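Same chain as my last thread, 310 residues:
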Amino acid sequence: MAEVLEQFLVCVGLLVCLLCLGKCLGLCRRVLPSCWPALPGGFLRSMGQWAVVTGAGDGIGKAYSLQLAKQGLNVVLISRTLEKLQAVATEIEQTTGRSTRIIQTDFTRADIYESIQEELAGLEIGILVNNVGMLPSLLPTHFLSTPDEIQALIHCNITSVMKMTQLVLKHMESRRKGLILNISSGVALFPWPLYSLYSASKAFVCTFSKALRAEYKDKGIIIQVLTPYAISTSMTKHLNTNVITKTADEFVKESLNYITSGDATCGCLAHELLASFLGLIPACIFYSRWSQRLLLTHYTEYLKQNVRAH
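reply #2:
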């Protein structure tokens, strides 16, 4: 009996060591993408002729649209504000020579996907970037004090990811190739008090993306969720940039190095390190009243001081 128990404990110890080694290797691969071979030239273009980007009129969506066009893809730009879409389309065509299409729509509505499907019909779509999203309040806020935009937020942050993926994935499956990038948030990695609604909606994007990757990874389709922290965009009131707060262009350029790094990534080194640090904080501290007071006072003041007027 003692020998059996000893062998069992040895096996458990080896299994724990292997799991720890796997986690370390996974962290190294996310934190140090340069240790792995870079994407082959033309990799993104090999996915298909067209990329589709939601929320393409500004910020991260605009940056992805420009970068994918520079990689040789034509781009379908989808967002709400026609003037912004036209400006991005003109910039892409003049700087890269690639073709663009514009779809003006409001992702806070649920009745838009039939017309989007008609607009996308016949295109060889190789890449989908589900970027569109809304943040109820940049400042930390209790749930009952959050602006009453629950249904709009669900449509924009959740429904858009499911429906756009549904429209595009079936054609990727038939071609056995494609890339889907779903933009979530660092606050989705675990529940964030005072950002509860936004955190929960972005956590859905993480769970959906990881499950979908497991379903379709054997069919030649790459599905990855990105969980960045602070990016200076109109949604974050153009926060001043620093080591942690990146511009949209900086984040997008770096995130493209992580495409083959796994099912989830923060998208840039600074945010990977920040996520690793936050993951070390015990839950009893992170969810304490003291922590919430810190967010409501010091972090709120920091945000107010670093918002740029536009």
